[in-house]
Specification:
7-stranded mixed sheet
């Protein structure tokens, strides 16, 4: 079977920066369905971190999220032209996820959800904390941050979760991804 253009794009990005891309292949439609399961048209604006080729973005749109309500934050140069062409109605920001709080500061409406394809386990804890704080600054009360992982535990250490005032709950696992993956929902521990 010949690889698709998305698979080739991912492999090229991984070869250029394996810790930043963290996978040699895009996520499966099964993982996309799992990570977007709790998101829909009433969620409000959605931020996607590390969209890669847009597998999760397509799943969000299939769930009824309007393309204009999606902001994609991607640091990898290789994915930007593809994302802009594939999702012309979405806002595509070419930047590091740590700066998302500043980039979204002028938005009138708070985010309803964050979908993350970032390789949090390959990042230092202070970087993960900065990303989480930036996202939760923009999330409305009751909004959630969805993160997938290839490991058997939440990719954000419990000590770090407590430090930034969050709790994690496993949404589910799919074996129909290479490798199998789990999704966690991060949310505020108290009223904010």
């Amino acid at each position: 079977m010949m690889p698709t253009s998305d698979e080739l794009r991912f492999l090229k990005a991984w070869l250029g920066a394996p810790l930043r891309t963290a996978s040699v292949t895009p996520s499966s439609r099964h993982l996309a369905a799992l990570i977007t399961r709790e998101v829909g048209p009433r969620t409000g604006p959605v931020l996607e971190l590390g969209p890669g080729t847009g597998v999760f973005t397509s799943a969000l749109m299939m769930r009824g999220v309007a393309e204009r309500d999606i902001t994609l934050v991607e640091a990898c140069d290789d994915f930007i032209p593809h994302l802009r062409a594939r999702f012309p109605g979405a806002r595509v920001l070419h930047m590091d996820a740590r700066g998302v709080g500043d980039a979204l500061r002028g938005d009138a409406q708070p985010l309803g959800a964050v979908i993350s394809g970032l390789p949090l386990l390959s990042m230092p804890p202070w970087t993960v904390a900065a990303i989480l704080r930036a996202c939760f600054t923009r999330l409305r009360p009751g909004g959630a941050f969805y993160q997938f992982t290839y490991t058997t535990r939440c990719p954000v250490h419990p000590v770090l979760l407590r430090r930034v005032g969050l709790t994690a709950e496993k949404v589910g696992t799919t074996l129909r991804n290479i490798p199998p993956a789990s999704v966690y929902r991060l949310s505020r521990t108290g009223p904010h």
